[in-house]
Amino acid sequence: MTTNQPAEGAHEAVYQVRLPLSKRTLDLVGDLIRRERNRLGTRWRKLPAGTQALIVLAVLRHDQRLRDMAGGNAVSASTVRRWVMEVLRLLSARAPRLDRALKKIARKGVVVLLDGTLVRTRRRTGADNRKNYSGKHKAHGLLFLALTDEKGNLIWISAARPGRSSEITTARHDKVTAHLREAGLGALADLGFVGLDDQPDDDPVIITGRKATKNHKLTDAEKEANRLLNRERAAVEQGFANLKSWRILAKVRMNARHATTLLRALLVLANTEVQR
Fold it and tell me: Is the pLDDT of residue 144 over 60?
């Protein structure tokens, strides 16, 4: 899938943007736009729904500048921005809620994979700058949790939390443990989630490795158990890789309040590509 754009300062020259996306993804976005236009009763738009879908996907996949996409299609940058936000809203509405996602996956298995990731953002000023700074990653960003199945396919993404938040606090905010227990599922997680489970002895649903402490060094058996657990949960990285192949996540420049909508929309797109 390609789209031609005029080179800066030369109206006759063009450069091509290749989108490594399936027709299924383009059709999904195009159909959502057409249905939204019909719902609103829109009689006229500057470009067809398919072209709008192609422009938005170029922005999301390659982090194309809005001004460049606007100039190549004879529209304003504000129009492209509005199109992007419209598509993000339509896609994010299709992202599953946590309880529904777990009930669906419970019919196929008994274990999911839980992990967190930092999505980098622009450095902001004042209090917003401080709360979005992650000491763990030494960068400014927003923290998201994700659940995948055993193969690494994304099934849920949390709302955005400030970068300084911990993974375990974010999981408690979303009541991940309670939802897992209600669905009859367990989750494999890394050492950042040690202590999350409120019933680790009676009815554990969060399975983590063992941490070494000053007074307790890990035994060979515990080290081996940690290695086996890490091997089983390695698939979660594939889910994050599918998500971050959308280069707009390299550094989110839009307002942070739109970040949750962005990530949930990209979850839908990433899963559409995986299932093609």
Answer: yes
